């Protein structure tokens, strides 16, 4: 409790010290307040113009064209346009379109104007709703409205124009790349065709050199195996003929020859039946009958020649009696012998091809490596070319979709209007701030001086400063005169404060009634 009382006493001493130095409060208030009030009163009025726009990024075509056309994120495009709207280039356009450039007479002034506009134009987003607020303040309400209008127009037209320019730029780029890759693809095709014509007789038709050679070796082995198997079958049939002939031997007669089966037997039988039908209908001299008989005679001659050739092909040591089983075995053996001869021809041809391949063992791998490189380059170029064609189709579809329906729909919620009343500066706050600064500076100066040159107010202050005891106090001899001077000083201080406060009240009242005293009376 004593500490609190001691603190209060010290604060009271400080207040008394400031009161003694109150003339500095008067000086500071009269130096700061009138000048500050005049400066605030002469500040030009600022008129604010606002605009609010909603950007609708929803489109009916987006879900329909998903996966078919190139689609960008319209929300990202709008946000990017909002971030780049106040770039220096765009602000220069706003300054020229709103005729602010005519107020400048040099490039330096125009640069300063652009810098000021960049910091003065306010573009804010209302969150995820794609609602943007554009505001600007100026001394002239018409200029403020014009700047906001130009900014709004640039925002709307810039977003749509950027989409079209981006689409056109992408289309031109794709066309250039397609033409370039088309030329490269044509050159690759010509090189590949020339290479194939040059080494047509060397390169294998399919596969690589080693795979083709391996296939030839495998085919040769298979052919030789087939020859062995077929020859074994021929030998088996020959042994069967000998066994059959040993058990049933008799001479070959004309009747046995007639029992041999040939490929003409069925045709002869059918033709005989047809001849019988014709003879029932026509005479022997009818052209159809004559023609049928001639054909039948020719077939019989061919059959007889085939039988004679078969019998002549049999070795003399195998001239054994023929029965039906022996005839069938001999025919099958003859067929197998023909297969053996065919397989031997194939074997000879494979051996020749293998020898030819082996003679090119040092040349073909190098040619195949070059062919692989050409095919790889051609394949890569062709793949890129087809991808570019697909991208161009997607870009064309996107362009047509943009023409049919714009992705971005701008709806002006609040257009910019010409303000009738100024929006700033807030002179009430500024007047109050000047008043507080004036009196605060005076109080601070008085406190500082009272501490630098302190005055003893109470006897106890003297006892705290010296070691001598205080036995009593003696008042001033001319106390009445001193009190009179103090009353005069208090009156002057009160009048000074009342005048400053009265001036402050007048200015506040004028500002409340929207009356600018400086512009009216000066």
Question: Can you summarize this structure?
Answer:
This protein is 72% helix and 5% strand.
Can you tell me about this structure?
With 522 residues, the chain is mostly helical. The protein has 17 helices and four strands. It has helices at residues 2-20, 22-41, 61-65, 74-84, 88-97, 107-120, 141-198, 209-247, 254-258, 265-281, 287-313, 324-359, 364-404, 427-452, 459-465, 479-512, 517-521; strands spanning 47-56, 122-125, 131-138, 409-414. α2 (22-41) runs antiparallel to α14. The longest helix has 58 residues, at 141-198.
Q: Which tags fit this structure?
A:
single chain, 4-stranded antiparallel sheet, 17 helices, 4 strands, 72% helix, 5% strand
Structural class: mainly alpha
Bulk shape: rod-shaped
Tally the helices: what do you get? 17
Beta percentage is: 5-15%
SSE order, one letter for each helix or strand: HHEHHHHEEHHHHHHHEHHHH
Distance between the termini: 60 Å
Low-confidence stretches: 60-65, 67-71, 246-257, 315-321
The tally of strands reads 4
- Biggest sheet record: 4 strands, antiparallel
Helix content: over 70%
Q: Please tell me the overall pLDDT.
A: 75
Radius of gyration from CA coordinates: 60 Å
Walk across the major sheet and give the strand order: 2-3-1-4
Describe the secondary structure blueprint for this structure.
Layout: H1 2-20, H2 22-41, E1 47-56, H3 61-65, H4 74-84, H5 88-97, H6 107-120, E2 122-125, E3 131-138, H7 141-198, H8 209-247, H9 254-258, H10 265-281, H11 287-313, H12 324-359, H13 364-404, E4 409-414, H14 427-452, H15 459-465, H16 479-512, H17 517-521
Antiparallel strand pairs: 1-3, 1-4, 2-3
Helix pairs in contact: 1-14, 2-14, 2-16, 5-6, 5-7, 7-13, 8-12, 10-11, 14-16
């Amino acid at each position: 409790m004593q500490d609190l009382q001691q603190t209060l006493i010290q604060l009271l001493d400080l207040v008394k010290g400031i009161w003694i130095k109150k003339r500095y409060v008067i000086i500071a208030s009269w130096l700061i307040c009138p000048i500050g009030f005049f400066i605030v009163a002469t500040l030009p009025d600022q008129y604010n113009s606002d605009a609010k726009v909603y950007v609708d990024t929803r489109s009916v075509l987006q879900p329909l064209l998903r996966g078919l056309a190139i689609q960008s994120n319209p929300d990202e495009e709008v946000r990017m346009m909002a971030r780049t709207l106040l770039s220096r280039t765009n602000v220069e356009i706003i300054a020229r379109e709103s005729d602010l450039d005519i107020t400048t007479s040099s490039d330096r002034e125009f640069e300063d104007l652009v810098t000021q506009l960049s910091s003065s134009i306010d573009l804010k987003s209302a969150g995820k709703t794609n609602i943007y607020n554009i505001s600007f303040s100026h001394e002239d309400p018409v200029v403020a409205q014009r700047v906001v209008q130009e900014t709004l127009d640039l925002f709307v037209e810039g977003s749509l124009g950027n989409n079209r320019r981006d689409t056109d730029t992408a289309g031109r780029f794709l066309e250039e790349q397609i033409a370039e890759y088309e030329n490269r693809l044509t050159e690759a095709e010509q090189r590949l065709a020339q290479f194939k014509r040059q080494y047509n007789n060397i390169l294998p038709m399919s596969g690589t050199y080693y795979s083709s050679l391996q296939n030839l070796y495998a085919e040769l082995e298979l052919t030789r195996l087939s020859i062995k198997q077929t020859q074994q079958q021929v030998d088996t049939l020959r042994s069967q003929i000998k066994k059959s002939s040993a058990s049933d031997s008799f001479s070959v007669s004309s009747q046995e020859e007639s029992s041999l089966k040939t490929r003409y037997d069925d045709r002869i039988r059918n033709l005989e039946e047809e001849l019988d039908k014709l003879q029932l209908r026509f005479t022997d001299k009818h052209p159809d009958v004559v023609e049928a008989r001639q054909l039948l005679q020719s077939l019989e001659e061919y059959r007889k020649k085939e039988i004679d050739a078969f019998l002549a092909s049999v070795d003399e040591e195998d001239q054994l009696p023929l029965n039906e089983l022996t005839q069938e075995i001999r025919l099958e053996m003859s067929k197998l012998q023909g297969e053996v001869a065919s397989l031997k021809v194939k074997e000879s041809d494979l051996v020749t091809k293998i020898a030819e391949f082996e003679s090119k063992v040092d040349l073909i791998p190098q040619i195949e490596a070059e062919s692989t490189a050409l095919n790889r380059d051609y394949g890569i170029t062709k793949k890129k070319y087809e991808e570019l064609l697909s991208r161009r189709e997607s870009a064309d579809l996107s362009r047509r979709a943009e023409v049919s329906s714009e992705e971005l729909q701008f709806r002006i919620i609040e257009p910019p209007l010409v303000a009738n009343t100024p929006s700033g500066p807030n002179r009430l706050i500024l007047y109050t701030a000047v008043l507080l600064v004036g009196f605060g500076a005076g109080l601070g100066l008085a406190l500082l001086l009272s501490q630098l040159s302190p005055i003893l107010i109470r006897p106890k202050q003297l006892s705290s400063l010296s070691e001598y005891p205080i036995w009593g106090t003696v008042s001033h001899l001319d106390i009445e005169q001193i009190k009179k001077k103090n009353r005069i000083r208090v009156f002057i201080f009160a009048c000074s404060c009342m005048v400053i406060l009265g001036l402050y009240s007048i200015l506040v009242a004028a500002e409340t009634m929207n009356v600018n005293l400086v512009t009216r009376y000066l």
